[in-house]
Amino acid sequence: MPTSSDPATLLMLAAAAVAALIAVIVLAVVLARVVHERDRLKQRTDRTIAEQQAEIDSLARFRDIRDAAATAEQLRNASKALYEGARHKEQEILNTAERAALEIASKAEREAAGVLEVARHEAAALRSAANLNAKTRRERADSALAEASAQAERIIASADQRAVQIAGDAYRALRESDRLKQVAEAMRNVIDGYDDRYFKPTFGLLDELAETYGFDDSGRQLKAARERTRLMVAEQRRIREQIREEQKAQREIERALKDSAREEKSLQKALAKVQAEAAQSSEAQRAFFDARLAELHARLAEAEARNQRALSMAQQTKAGHVYVISNIGSFGEDVFKVGMTRRLEPLDRVRELGDASVPFAFDVHALIWSEDAPALETALHRQFIQAQVNKVNPRKEFFQVPLGAIRRQLEAKGILASWTMTAAAAEYRESLALAKQLAEDPEKAREWTQRQYDYDLAADREEMEAEEEALANA
After folding, report:
1. Neighbours of 201 (CB within 10 A)
2. How many CB atoms lie within 10 A of CB 323?
3. Dist CA 279 CA 271 (whole Å)
4. The model's pTM
5. Residue 400 lies inside a defined structural domain of this protein
6. Which terms are listed as keywords in the entry (predicted)?
7. Counted domains in the chain
8. 317: which DSSP letter?
9. What pLDDT digit, counting tens, does each position of 156-214 carry?
10. Is 228 within 8 Å of 152 (Cβ atoms)?
């Protein structure tokens, strides 16, 4: 069942809220007109009564005359009838207004309920499609990995049998020697502590045999299976990372939809309030209220545009940004990463890439919006496939190529973007300048070293305080 955080549901809830708000405004206008009409009728009735009372008073000296008394009585009855008629008409207008307002409110509620029901169905369909897509990807990756692992096991078993046939007793002795070596290493870990020697080398006896008897079919199959298994593990890791990125993007889109709906509702309330105040304002105040209304209309249009963009990205699962970034301090000149993200704020993804795994932050050279960002990213990767920095893992997205070549390739596809051709690399260049100063000034080097020590101590202290606070709150 969809929740209030579903994008389509949130949009339709906002539409229902707008319909209800319009109904309330119409009711307020109708009631205001009724009150105005009532006041006008009351004033006219009071004026008529006053006039007739004056006429009655003028006939007071003739109260002994029967005709004057009859005339006065007739005037009183006429005044009473007029007053009762005015009250009856006022009540009629009020009843009509109430019925009209109730009918408008009822219609708005029915429309809102219908819109909400449609939103629920659409949200359920979107969520079902997204879950099915993610599940299919995971199943495909798991199936491929399982198949590769099973094939690798079969080939390893075949190679093992072949190795026994080729090496005989020597192979069995080597295998026993390898087992004893592992036991010895484990015992040494008990004595020396668990340092990096605790980890077993990944290149084992079967790999040695595969290299030695590489001409043999089993050896070749073993190496190929090992390579396929390694690639499948890397592919599954990439798919998991992609799924995590998609989930982050989806959460960001849902949060944006919720925030924009809340902002739209707030702006609509403010707009209605200012419109009501403007209707009662004087000519001198009209300019101020007109400016305020123009500002609120502009902000409401911006909020609606953001909402529409977030909804579009929620519905178009391939829409996103392709980014071109560099990190001179980490990878050197003319090395660029070409990737894509579906985040509403693509720079958030770039900042995540420049975390503790690299010493410096990435510089952004271009952000290109595309309705099919994966296809554009793949096209660029294939265009510069010979320039891949990592020739072993095809999933790495770093390319050693001039930035102008990437720009020309995009322009050839008719894609125009704003480019920053020179990397700032601010922290890297400042670090180079500081390193030169420290090398030339020993005193400054000592001061800098002391500041680093103080920073580490402060960081450790903050971490300990955070841990203590977490334990206290647990």
Report:
1. 7
2. 24
3. 12
4. 0.40
5. yes
6. Coiled coil
7. 1
8. T
9. 566 556 555 544 544 455 455 555 555 555 555 544 444 444 334 444 444 555 555 44
10. yes
Radius of gyration of the chain (CA): 40
State the sign of the Cα–Cα–Cα–Cα dihedral 389, 390, 393, 396.
Answer: negative
- In this structure, the dihedral spanned by the alpha carbons of residues 8, 9, 11 and 15, taken in order and rounded to 10 degrees, is 130
- Give the span between the Cα atoms of 365 and 410, in whole angstroms: 13
List, in order, residues 6 or more apart from 118 with CB less than 8 Å away. Answer: 12
* Residue 344 falls inside a structural domain: yes
- State both tokens at 239: 């798919």
In a domain, 252, yes or no: no
- Rounded CA separation 80/62 (Å): 22
Within a 10 A sphere around the Cβ of 9, how many other Cβ atoms? 22
Domain span holding position 365: 320-425
Mean pLDDT throughout 48-55?
Answer: 76
Q: Is residue 244 part of a domain?
A: no
**CB 450 within 8 Å of CB 458:** no
Give 192's contacts (C-beta < 8 A, 6+ positions apart): none
Q: Say if CB 324 and CB 336 are below 8 A apart.
A: yes
pLDDT for 317 beyond 70: no
Both tokens of residue 162?
A: 């072949």
DSSP-assigned beta bridge partners for residue 322: 340, 368
pLDDT band at 327 (very low <50, low <70, confident <90, very high): very high
Report residue 148's pLDDT band, with 50, 70 and 90 as the boundaries: low
Q: Within a 10 A sphere around the Cβ of 382, how many other Cβ atoms?
A: 8
Mean per-residue pLDDT, 300-312: 68
The three-class DSSP label of residue 336 is strand
C-alpha dihedral sign at 394, 397, 402, 403: positive
- 324 DSSP β-pair partners: 338, 366
| Beta-ladder partners of 398 | 337
